[in-house]
Each structure stands twice: as C-alpha cells, then as structure tokens.
Amino acid sequence: MTKSSTLVVNEAAANADTRFVAPDLVALDAKGAPRLIGGRCRKCNAVSFPRAAVCANCLSEDIETIELAHEGTLYSYSIVHQAPKGWTVPYALGYVDLPDNVRVLAHLDAPADKITVNMPMRLSVGVVGADPAGAPLLSYTFTPV
Amino acid sequence: MREVCVIGTGLIPFGKYPDKTLAEIGWPAVKEAIVESGVPPKSIDAVYCGSALGGMLSGQRVMKSLGLTGMSIINVENACSSSSSALAEAWTAVGSGRHDVVLVVGVEKLTKFGGGTLPLENEDWEVTQGMVMPALYAMRARRYMHEYGLTARQLGEVSVKAHEHGALNPNAQIRKRVSIDEVMASRPVADPFTLWHCCPTGDGAAALVIASADVARKQKADPVRVTASEVTSGLYTNGYRDMTWAELTARGAKEAYEMAGVGPQDIDVAEIHDAFTIAELMYYEAFGFCERGHAYELLSSGATSLGGDICVNPSGGLLSRGHPVGATGAAQAVEIVRQLEGRAGAHQVEGARVGLAHATGGGIAGLDHGACSIHIFAR
Ligand SMILES: [Zn+2]
User: Fold this and answer.
1) Which among B142, B193, B194 is the top mutation candidate for probing chain A, defined by the most A β-carbons within 10 Å of its own β-carbon?
2) pTM for this structure?
3) Ranges of residues in chain B whose predicted pLDDT is under 70
4) Fewer CB within 10 Å of terminal CB in chain B, N or C?
5) Is B238 an 8 Å CB contact of chain A?
6) pLDDT tens, B162-185?
7) Domains defined for chain B, CATH in brackets
8) Do the interacting molecules here have an ipTM over 0.90?
C-alpha cells in the first residue's frame, strides 16, 4: 500500500479486512472511505492513474502520490455477461471521467436499467468477484450520485 | 523502395482444429502459397511468421514440417495485427532490396484456450478491473449510439451483412446466414452486443509469397502489387479519449492512402477489422468511406455489400470468416489478392482493381488499440 503526505492509508483495514483486486490503485482513508491513488508529476503537473513511476509527458521520475477526485461523469458503459472465471456476471463496467483529464475504468454499482451515459458518479467500494478459494474480492466502484 | 508484388497465396478454412498442432494448422497454407507462386521452395530468402498466442518459434515449427529451414525466420507478435505486421516486415525486406522472395505466414490456434473471451494480459490495470475485449468495443458502441442515435438493431445489421457474405465463402468459419431477429435474440455477451455481434474464436492459417517485381514478372504477367504497407501504434493517454472515433486507424489510413497515391473513392474492395459490429461502422468513417456519424446510412444503402460501390468484407470478415487473432491479417491479404485476380468465386467483387486490408487490435489500457496495420493492393 502506498503512503504519502497527501494520502492517509488505514493499513490495518487495507491489509486485514479487505482484499482488493488491485491494492495499488485504491486505499481506504482513516474513516474507511475509498480513495483512488494517482500520481502528479512535480515537474509538469501531469496527473497519472495508475500512479506512474515515470511521467508519460516529460519522463520525470519525481512523482507525488495524490488522491484523485471522488466524483466524475460516466463516459460510457456496458453490462458484461461473459467474463473469465472469478468475476460475478453480469456486471456493469464503465469509464468514469474525473477532473484533471483522468479516465478510470470501474465496476458500476447500480442496476443496469438505471445507468445512462453522462450521469454523475461517486466513488464507492464493492465486492466484484471471488478468488480461486471463493473468498470475496473487493474493488473500487462507482455509484450514481 | 522498389516495387513489391504478391505471387502466391494460401489459406486453410478457418474453424476449430483442437486435435491439430499449430504446425499442422500452418503448413498447408504455406505449401499452397509456395506451389501457387511457382518459385522453387529453396528460393525463399526469409520467413516472417505472425502469431499472437502461438508461443515460441511458431514460424520454425511450421516451416520444419515442410523441410524448409535454414533461412532467416522471424516471429512477429502484434496481437490482432501480428501477421499483417509480418507482411509489412516482408514488404520492407523486399522493397529495400535485402531479399527477393519472402514468405509471410499467419497462424493461430485459439482452441487450446477452450471457449469464451481470450486471455488478456494480467499486468494491465484495466484487466484487473474486469476489462474484456467485448466490453471495450461495447463501450464504443454505447457512446456512438448516444452521440449519433444509432440503435442496437441497426448495429446488428452489420452482422447480417457479414454472414450474407460469409455464407458464400468456403473458407469461412461460420457459413450461415443470420436474420436480424436471430442477431438480436442470441445470448447477451456485453450489452449492446449479443453473441452474433462478436467474431467467433477459432483456428486458422494463411500465407503469402512476396517478391520483387523482377521475380514476380517471371512468374505472372500482371501480378498484384503492394502499393502501401504501414504499421502504427496507438497513442497513449490516461485521460479522455473520443471512443466514437478510430483515431489509430484514421491515422494509418491517411498514411496508407498517401503512400499508394489513392483515396477512399478509389477502393473497390476492403477487408477491415470487424471484430465486433461497431468496429465495421467506425472504420467506414476512419477510412473516409463516409462522413462521421453516417456509417449506418452507408451500410443500409448497400454500398458496402457485394454488388455495392465499395464492398467491405466480402469474405464475411472477422464476424463470419472467423478471427484466429494472429492469422487474420494474412487471411485478409490473401482475400484481397484473390479478389484482384478475379478468383474469389461466389463472393467475387466484379472488376475489383484496388483493395485494402486492415488489421488492428490489442486491448491495452490507455491506447486506442495496440497496433494497426494497413496494406493497399492494386492490379
Ligand atoms: Zn511530467
């Protein structure tokens, strides 16, 4: 789990009670709220997600870890009915546009018939699948505002 | 660059060959191409083999079956563009004067993975969040429908057209017509796609013998020339992207048209990468066959069907001929060459003189697609 001055990570919650499918993308703050972990280049200000080790804009490696915005707009989506083992189908998948030119792919936590293009969405957490042993796997999700 | 021609083509019927090895799938296409070319097998200076998932030394495994080894064999992986990228390498090798006769083969065996969606790279962060290829294209479709008022049923007509063509092609994996009602009633894969909106997975192989014009004219009076050959990659961004516009293909098309000295109005026949229904419509626009937002009008006018002004995917395309990933680009090239030579049979485009082949794909976070390769052929 990444630590920085701008992101407070609840290590106990992140390591013990929750099992994120990609723990480098998301952390829980002190109150247990999800936060997307991005990067901001200290040289050119380009924002990356996932947090880049090297800036794709200027090649600087001086990247600050930042917390991305919690709200955005749904660019597009699909209800996925056929997926590899481990995913609970059907699931709604969408691209959410956050401020600072960041587009995030996420499971959407909403009934299929309530999802529309351009709707405002808010960051959330949900069970998205199961590991080979059947234990639930969590990830960040987005929920209609 | 000197002039480059195609003097031999080979293709096996696409389908499911779970009991054959990759080499067994590949060698018949190679043999057919060499026999058709008329050149002695030992005159092949180099081999470029495209395979996305065939594993190490795919080209050597195929070529040793025919006892043809010792020359330079280069294996090319570029996802759906693997064998079209191999063709581009072959074009460069002959065009530059380095080699006179080069073999290109595309070979793939997808039945080894069982059914369902193809395995994607788990290091890709979008894959860790549940990305699958149908969902990527489905999100393009959903946004396109939102912006241009296209309906799922209209989108389904792409599949109806593809299978009209494929039913006439003995090498197609799915040789069956399908009605729009059947398309819409099939099981959902990734909304708005049902099963018939998606290309089938399977196995296949295709091969071409490429030669300098000097060598080619000793074999054939009027050989098909490769007038443009290009490969491009997607532009990376982790930010916003217009998913209704195939930027990578449009950029490649512009380059290819310039290289060949032609424009969209000159194309008689095209094999384009219709992995999913929306892809064909978006590529009409990227190739300039119509204005943005007008692809469905072009489809419904019949212009892109057999008998139309610009026949797209007379083979049935990926939707009907099938899409054994790394073999697709070579199969498209074989189809176009045979069309220009007037020997495509029941799905012949009458009088075709200029054709293009377009293979693009590779799901990768932050890129439109991994790769895109476009070739233009003329006779
Ligand atoms: Zn930078």
Assistant:
1) B142
2) 0.94
3) 116-117, 119
4) N
5) yes
6) 999 999 999 999 999 999 999 999
7) 4-114+203-219 (3.40.47.10), 125-198+224-378 (3.40.47.10)
8) yes
